[in-house]
Automatic annotation (TrEMBL):
Span of domain Aldehyde dehydrogenase: 21-474
Upper taxonomic lineage: Bacteria, Pseudomonadati, Bacteroidota, Flavobacteriia, Flavobacteriales
Alphabetically ordered keywords of this record: NAD, Oxidoreductase
Protein name per its UniProtKB record: Succinate-semialdehyde dehydrogenase
Family assignment from sequence similarity: Belongs to the aldehyde dehydrogenase family.
A GO term, aspect molecular function: oxidoreductase activity, acting on the aldehyde or oxo group of donors, NAD or NADP as acceptor
PROSITE patterns associated with the record: ALDEHYDE_DEHYDR_CYS
Gene3D superfamilies in the cross-refs: Aldehyde Dehydrogenase, Chain A, domain 1, Aldehyde Dehydrogenase, Chain A, domain 2
Entries under InterPro entries matching the protein: Ald_DH/histidinol_DH (IPR016161), Ald_DH_C (IPR016163), Ald_DH_CS_CYS (IPR016160), Ald_DH_N (IPR016162), Aldehyde_DH_dom (IPR015590)
Pfam family, one: Aldedh
Taxonomic superkingdom: Bacteria
Amino acid sequence: MKKYENFHLQFIGGEWGEGSSKTSKIADYNPYTGELILEFISADEQDVDAAYQAAKLASKNWAVSNFTERRDIMSKALELFTVRKQEFIDLLVMESGSTLLKAKIEFDAAIEGFKFAIGMPARLQGYISQSSVAGKEARVYRKPLGVIGVISPWNLPFYLSLRSVIYALAVGNTVVLKPAPQTPITGGSFMGKLFEEAGIPKGVFNVVMGSNEETGDAFVENPIPRLISFTGSTRVGSMIGEKCGRLLKKAVLEMGGDNAFIVREDADIDYAVNSAAFGKFLHQGQICMAINRILIHENIYQEFAEKFIAKIATLKYGNPADPDVIVGPLIEKRQVDRILKNIDESIKAGAILALGGTAEGNVIAPTVITNATNKMPIACDEIFGPVAVLIPFKDDEEAIQMANDSIYGLSGALHTKDLDKGVRIAQQIETGMVHINDQSVNDEPQIVFGGEKSSGLTKFNADEVVAEFTTLQVITVQYEHRKYPF
C-alpha cells in the first residue's frame, strides 16, 4: 500500500489544493530534531468559507442518508487506519514528539473511538409524547445539527480531532476540521486522506490548515456552522465560547486541567507511586488530564517522595523514536521556557528541586519538586510538562480543600484502601471525573468525559455526545378536530 503524500494541501469539497493566503505560511517542525517537516501556504478566510459552503451543500443528503452508509464508510476508515498503523505512528512520533509508547496508546484510543462511532448511527432515537389536547400526539425527532466546525489541539492530534469528527459524522452532520498549526498532518490531512480513501462523499468532511491569525476568527464566526467543537486551552476556549454565545451557536468546549492526585494515609504506596508516574509523565505531561499536583498525607509523605523520586530517576528521556524513551520533547521551545520559569519562581518561593530541572533543546529532564504549596506557580498553573509537584496534607478535609482550590475541574485521582470513604471524598471534589486507585488520564468512548468550572462546559462520549451533536424537533399530529375557544 502506497504511503499517503502531499500533506501540505487543503481538503475542501473532496478536492486537494493549495491554501489561498497571500501572507501566511505554516512551518511544521520536528520538535525533537528541529528539522523542518514541511512548509506550505496557510488557508485563509476564503478557504474557510469554501469549506463551510461545501459542507453545507453536502449536509442535506448526508443527514438523510441511510445509517448503514455512514456505518460502512466509518468501518472502511477503521480498516484503513488499522492497515496504516505503522505509517501513522511514524508520523506522530516525528511531528508531535510522541514517544513510541504514547503513539501506540493514541492509536489504540482512536481504534476504540472508531468502533464506538460505528454503532452510533443507529442510535438516533426519537420518541412519542402524550399531549394534554385530546386527539393529539407529539413526535420528537432527533436530528443532526447540520454543519459542525472542529478545532483540535496538538497534544493528541489525531485522537482529539477524531473524537469530535467521527461522532459528528456518525449522527449525520458534515464537518470542517481545523487542526493545530503544530500538527497539521497527524491532526488534519492524514485524516482527510483516510476518509477520502474510505469513500466519504465530497464535502461531508473537509480539512483547512491555517494559522490562527489568518483563520481563527473566521472559523468560529462564519454563519454556516451550527456548533463549534473546541479542545485546547481555557484562554482560547473562553474566547470561542464568548463568540459562540454572541452568535447564538452551540459550543462544545473541552479545556485545561489542574488535576489533583490524592494519596491517603492508607494507600498502597508502591502502587500509588507507579500510578502517579504514569499519569504524570505520559507524553511529557502534555495531556489535559495529566496529573498536575500530587497531594500526599503528611504521615507517608517522606516514604512516598523517596520512592517516587527513585522511580522517576529511572525514566529514560530524549529521542522519542527510541523505544525505551518515556519522556520525549515538548512541542516547542516557548513551552520549555514557560515551565523552567515556573520552576525557578517556585524554588525562590521555597520549593525544593529534588530531581531534574534541566533542559536540552525541547526535552526537559523528568523533574520532581518537593516542599511545594498549592499557591506556587508550578502548582496552580497547568504545567503541561514533565514536572511532578509533591504537596503534603494533614487530613481528608484539607486534601479536598486543596484539590478544589483551582479554577479547573477536569480529572483527578484518589488512592485509598477504604473504597467507600474514597467515593465519599471523590463526590466532594469539584471535578468532572475522579479515578479511585488509578491515575487521572482515562478516556473511554463508552464512559462520559468532561470537566467542570474552567475545564469545560459540555460532555463527550457515551450518549452525551449524541445529545451535543444533534437537536430535537417536535412534530405534533392532531388526529381529530380540536375545539377552539373562538
